[in-house]
Amino acid sequence: MTTYKAPLREYRFLLQELFDVGELAKLPGYEDATPDVFEQVLEEGAKLCEEVLFPLNRSGDEEGCTFENGVVRTPKGFKEAYDLFRQGGWTALVCDPEYGGQGLPHTLQFLVEEMVSSANMSFGMYPGLSNGAYRAIWHHGSAAQKRKFLPRLVDGSWSGTMCLTEPQCGTDLGQIRTRAEPAGTDGVYKITGTKIFISAGEHDLTDNIVHLVLARIVGGPPGIRGISLFIVPKFLVKDDGGLGPRNGVRCGSIEHKMGIKASATCVINFEEAEGYLLGEAHKGMRAMFTMMNAARLGVGLQGLALGETAYQTARQYAQDRLQGRALAGDKFPDKPADPIIVHPDVRRMLLTMKAYTEGARALAAWVSLALDRAERDPDPAAREEADDFIGLMTPIIKAMLTDNAFAATNLGVQIFGGHGYIREWGMEQLVRDSRITMLYEGANGIQALDLVGRKMPMHNGRLLRRFFHPVDAWLRQRLEKPELQEFVMPVMKAFGRLQQVTALVAQKGMADPDEAGAAASEYLRAFGLVAMGYLWARIAEIALGRLGGDEALFYKGKLATARFYMARVLPETNTLFVNIAAGAKSLMELEAEAF
Amino acid sequence: MTTYKAPLREYRFLLQELFDVGELAKLPGYEDATPDVFEQVLEEGAKLCEEVLFPLNRSGDEEGCTFENGVVRTPKGFKEAYDLFRQGGWTALVCDPEYGGQGLPHTLQFLVEEMVSSANMSFGMYPGLSNGAYRAIWHHGSAAQKRKFLPRLVDGSWSGTMCLTEPQCGTDLGQIRTRAEPAGTDGVYKITGTKIFISAGEHDLTDNIVHLVLARIVGGPPGIRGISLFIVPKFLVKDDGGLGPRNGVRCGSIEHKMGIKASATCVINFEEAEGYLLGEAHKGMRAMFTMMNAARLGVGLQGLALGETAYQTARQYAQDRLQGRALAGDKFPDKPADPIIVHPDVRRMLLTMKAYTEGARALAAWVSLALDRAERDPDPAAREEADDFIGLMTPIIKAMLTDNAFAATNLGVQIFGGHGYIREWGMEQLVRDSRITMLYEGANGIQALDLVGRKMPMHNGRLLRRFFHPVDAWLRQRLEKPELQEFVMPVMKAFGRLQQVTALVAQKGMADPDEAGAAASEYLRAFGLVAMGYLWARIAEIALGRLGGDEALFYKGKLATARFYMARVLPETNTLFVNIAAGAKSLMELEAEAF
């Protein structure tokens, strides 16, 4: 069985040592979100995740969801767990107090999301999707729409979905065929079409499901400019807020997937379903995109969450499993064999997992703090700055964190040897569950194009400058500190090369978009590794000052991992920079039929 | 659904263009193994694999094996397919004609194994294990043992297993507890103990199962020097060859695994089972190791086999799936969208798969030709040379080919986007099935230790020289050929650095074994990438000369893939060499409890 204890000490390190979460409480509306409140909420969340959600993770995977006559049942225990989750107020955490929410910061929400996913990623999909729907309606809904739908999404008695994909289109939403016909009343439409891959599209956890559906208003412009967003509830909602008759929304089937088996992935058929235009007609994509940053960050968090569980479990196994002897001679001659953690290669795998997961969490926390500033800072310039940073980092968080998480969960299996392949141990489930994070919310290749094709040129490179300048300043200020050389120098070197290839990619991409496309994935990864390296250098600086106290082991762990990062992880950029410089030719020269 | 057509053109390229399979027919005993015979056998094998085995691959995964009251049932259709397989003589291919075999070369057997695994890896496990048992008895058995067991293993009416692992030990076989007590008659023992992870340990395909069991003769030396190998049949065999009573061998359960679900992985309990000492007492490990090279090569082949199926299927999808537009402008304005193969990043993924899979096959063919020479060459010096080469390359083939295969099957999923995650499409099964290849027959970290700790120092580096010298000579002969510069130069550079780090690792490893252990995995990978780069350079040389003919597209594909390899794959060594040079410190400094 896997092991999971919420990494509360790690959270404290990020919130109070690496970053200063106290700053959040100075923002209007966040006055109550003091570091103490963070601690309390995280402790409560930890309990729920460890005691309620985590024990359902294996059984949920084994049992999966079932589909019969249009009804989807979640695995045993999920309904009870969901009721506890919702009664605990966890669906309301980040929501607007006007609709019953607790108005707490995104930063806190993200840490809770991480714990939930570490414990039971499939479970986390249900409230996660609701939160997306909540956000879309909160941002774009009319006052009446908000009054009607938000309170029940906030208290979790209803859930939400995002209905984008159709059989013929996922990435390319301009091909959407689901159509909306005006139904006579202003803003009311009849929605008809089939959507696939709808997470939480149908289930038995809530009384109603609020679908957010992308559809084409009949007679609207073709392609992506004719797509609108609609609210389509499973049950119609009466004026008094009570449930009316069933709407024309039916689950056609559920998908049988590699993982996240306890998350219902549905085919949803809309047949003249009553839907309400959300935001402006034909501007559905824009409305959808406002949810996208948070959703993509959330997927990155799912990744690191599974990396955490894999790490905790593999660490335990490596310390317990007696097999073979240390290469340099027996470490525990009185035991039948040494624990496998004596082996350099096992340590290499564990340290990679640790470096990836803790580095990812630092990166995600950095961005989520910006998300709160972008929403709440009274200074428009500060908001813009935060927004730029989020825009730049979102594709990196989504893609790199999920790639790394898949690598980390696989290293976890590898440390277990053959036992890692056996379902009972739970390690292979982490691999299967994490695999989806590289695919949904825009496959990772799409993230790379977003970075290179949109974020990089945006505002003449302003987003990039907003990252490059402070990092550069931080590094330069430490050039003279001998104890930091081993961290600052490798990051500085990689950072310099990153700036060079940035110019190269921008320049070549201008002349030939395929050049940008050819560099995209490796550029994103190099950027992410440098950004993470910068954070590991900052972490090392903190750890160096705290090796003497009670928690020496904790800081030694940080320091050793930072060293490992510089010696063994960051050098991946050597390859990436060469690959980027190689350009598009070797990718594009071959005729499609010669593959 | 996945797609699979046996890559017969690829086989011809390897056997007749890159290498010269005609040489094999000059070896004594292989006179009949002409290139024509190779072609015929491969064509027949292709039919069986495409038409019989491949259609059972998905259903076999969905259904899995079942266990009830000690009886294991393989999925629907497997028994019929196995009967066809055995009636076609496929279990006898490489076996000694004295026992009913066809005496064909290993090289041919390996290509057939690849096709079988591409079509249905789980199915291939059953005859694969039998072949291992055949080989052990053929090498180490007495004349009576051979007469008793080999003909039925050869004709496939019985199958075999290798029983090594126990709950407390996999890698560290010195910890084996299964015991053998002399039963009165010379060479006969009572075997008692529990073995786990026994592939094909129990099933319904054959009349009898011949287990090869590692056990400790009571009173023998402790540790690995007290392990002996025994033949333990499921049913006792009468003197006339007929089946006698059931032996004390029972299947306790089957494992529920991540993949290869149609392959029965069994817990086998031996209770005073009658067993026959195979080879010398206490020398069981040595006997086991004679099977190991072939078994490890076989696992490498399973890897590339799944990479091939993933590549064929992903290529088809990338050519068919219309989604989005080419970055540089519409390629097919008359279609609703362009096929995704127009995108540089999709091509990057496909070319990586192609480079890995075809490079792997070339590497494996090179080694399997040596295997045939090592067995049959009348010149002892030539045999020794071939043996050295096999010893050196086996861990590389096992580890790198399976790491690459897992990467390739995952790229296949990535090209499919969300559809890749859905079981119906079959892509995720390839990921799950391929994952085991990195774990069994010695996890890949163990392979790396075998390379660095055993093969590198063996005979004062003779194995390495046997690889370095001819590669060096080949490269030097081509230094002046302008058309080969783009291939020879990058390989030469990486090859030079490989020689440097070889000296470094050997030197540091002598002083501190942890230094060798810290470098092992990355050294193995760097070695493999250079060896594969050398083969891609040779392939490019051939392709360059044949671009004009009917098969221009085929050779263009080879050439473009060779270029891609130099530009985008081989540069991974840049990182690996840096990692190797970083040494053990960053891995070893942290206390185990600080992880």
Structure description:
The structure is a homodimer of 595-residue chains. Chain A has 595 residues and is α+β, with helices and mostly antiparallel strands. Chain A has two domains: 442 residues, Butyryl-CoA Dehydrogenase, subunit A, domain 3 (Up-down Bundle); 138 residues. In chain A, the strands form three sheets. A five-stranded mixed beta barrel of chain A has the order 4-5-11-7-6. In chain A, helix 1 packs across helix 8 and helix 2 packs across helix 5. The longest helix of chain A is centred in the middle third of the chain and has 37 residues. At the A-B interface, helix 7, helix 8, helix 9, helix 10 and helix 11 of A face helix 7, helix 8, helix 9, helix 10 and helix 11 of B.
Q: Layout of helices and strands, plus pairs?
A:
The structure is a homodimer of 595-residue chains.
Chain A: H1 8-18, H2 35-53, H3 57-63, E1 66-68, E2 71-73, H4 78-87, H5 106-140, H6 143-154, E3 158-163, E4 179-182, E5 188-199, E6 208-217, E7 227-233, E8 235-237, E9 243-246, E10 249-254, E11 265-278, H7 284-320, H8 344-376, H9 380-416, H10 427-435, H11 444-455, H12 462-477, H13 485-511, H14 513-544, H15 552-569, H16 572-582, H17 585-588
Parallel strand pairs in A: 3-6, 4-6
Antiparallel strand pairs in A: 1-2, 4-5, 5-11, 6-7, 7-11, 8-9, 10-11
